[in-house]
Amino acid sequence: MDRDEIMVNKGQSLARQCFQREVEQPDEQIHLERAALYLAQEDYPELDVEAYVKALDALAAAVKERSPQSSYPLKIIQAINHYLYDELGFVGNTADYYDPRNSFLNEVIDRRTGIPITLSLVYLAIAQRVGLPMVGINMPGHFLIRPVIDEAEICVDAFHQGEILFPQDCEERLAQVYGHPVELKPAFLQAVSKRQYLARMLTNLKVTYSNQGKLEQTLAAIDRLLLLFPDTPLELRDRGIVYYHLDRATEAQHDLESYLTLVPTAIDAPVIQRLLKTIKKGVV
């Protein structure tokens, strides 16, 4: 192992420890932006987490300067939209949606482009700092945010220039994503916890790296998903398969056996059992 690999592994270890400490707290105490930056720090060992937290502070301070005295939510949303999208030029990355950089908060801040969930994180961080708490919305296929106000029936689409959406608009957005009409179920507008938010970010990374054949990075994403939600059957299965392809037979066997223990009647159980037989034949 050369010096660069040692430094990367050391950076990954420190970032992983910081991420784990952050997400082991009660959900309401998790600092979402810091956790997302620790997530990015594994790929960017030199990343200065506090510098990016201060960058978000500075964005919020600039919005405050441009905000009207009124604390009316729509006015604050308009001020955030004007600064982020009109002045700074933040934009959804439609040209290269599956670029892994779109999932890293530091890159989104630096490049001013990203995917719905990371642009929403920038938006949430600013809104929180200027006195308009918002939450992520668990809408399938397209992440949204909304103000934490009982009477507010609006959502904000951070990927599309902070567009304000009413329930009917959300239903239309779903139809665009899936290519056919989709009923807007109440569950689609439920707020996600901070752990769920981070899990959705990591799932994006996991899928992107897996599609690119980057097994070590895929493994790192799954490891952190399991820190958030231990013993999740599908993540144990997927990690076992990645271990198998990385020739880490003992770890693969452990995860795949754990998967079958948790869901013995899984539809893919016969396939996993055959894979386990193959692994056991090769284990000395």
Mind explaining what this structure looks like?
Strand 5 and strand 6 form a beta hairpin. The chain is globular and about 70 Å long. The chain has 284 residues and is mainly α. The chain has twelve helices and six strands. The protein has helices at residues 3-23, 32-41, 49-66, 73-87, 105-111, 116-129, 167-178, 194-211, 215-228, 233-245, 249-262, 269-282; strands at residues 91-92, 113-114, 134-137, 144-147, 155-157, 163-165.
Oligomeric state as shown: single chain
Helix tally equals: 12
What shape does the CA trace take? globular
Structural class: mainly alpha
Question: How much beta, percentage-wise?
Answer: 5-15%
Strand order of the main beta sheet, please? Answer: 1-2
What percent of the residues sit in helical stretches (DSSP H or I)? 55-70%
Largest pleated sheet: 2 strands, parallel
How many β strands by DSSP?
6
**Low confidence ranges:** 1-8
Distance between the termini: 26 Å
- Report the mean per-residue pLDDT as an integer: 91
Summarize the helix and strand pattern as letters: HHHHEHEHEEEEHHHHHH
Please compute the radius of gyration using only Cα atoms: 21 Å
